Amino acid sequence: MHRALKRLSISFKMKTIQPVERDEHARLHWLEAIGRFDPERLVFVDESGTHTAFTRLYARATRGERAFGSAPRGRGRTQTLNRGIVFEWSDRRFRD
Fold first, then answer.
1. In the chain, where the domains are located
2. d(CA 42, CA 23)
3. What is the DSSP string of 1-43?
4. Which of 70, 46, 71, 68 is CA-nearest to residue 59?
């Protein structure tokens, strides 16, 4: 299988993911609707998280040598960060 794909110049690559539920018509409708609001009254909520037991899967080693590493035993915690972002206009310009 590998040789056949190589002959066809097909290589193993990371794929680009696009959301299936993306609807351009709905996006345009949302942009029109949101344009009617006062930006100073909007608050955007952002949430992100990670698990503290994650570790890198790849490492560097000289050719022919095995790359070693260590990892926690899966007892990590989940860290979550919530943030509210608001629009704040300032008359201050970029000054020296």
1. 40-55+75-88
2. 23
3. -HHHHHHTT----PPPP--TT--HHHHHHHHHHHTTS-GGG-E
4. 68
For the chain, the distance separating the N- and C-terminal CA atoms, rounded to the nearest angstrom, is 62
pTM over 0.90: no
CA 16 to the chain's CA centroid: 12
φ and ψ at residue 50, rounded to 5 degrees: -150, 160
Residues facing 84 on adjacent strands: 45
Query: Between 64 and 88, whose confidence is greater?
Result: 64
Question: Token pair for residue 51?
Answer: 């698990």
pLDDT digits (tens, 9 = 90+) for 19-74: 777 788 998 998 999 889 888 888 889 999 888 777 777 888 888 888 888 877 76
CA distance 96 to 93: 10
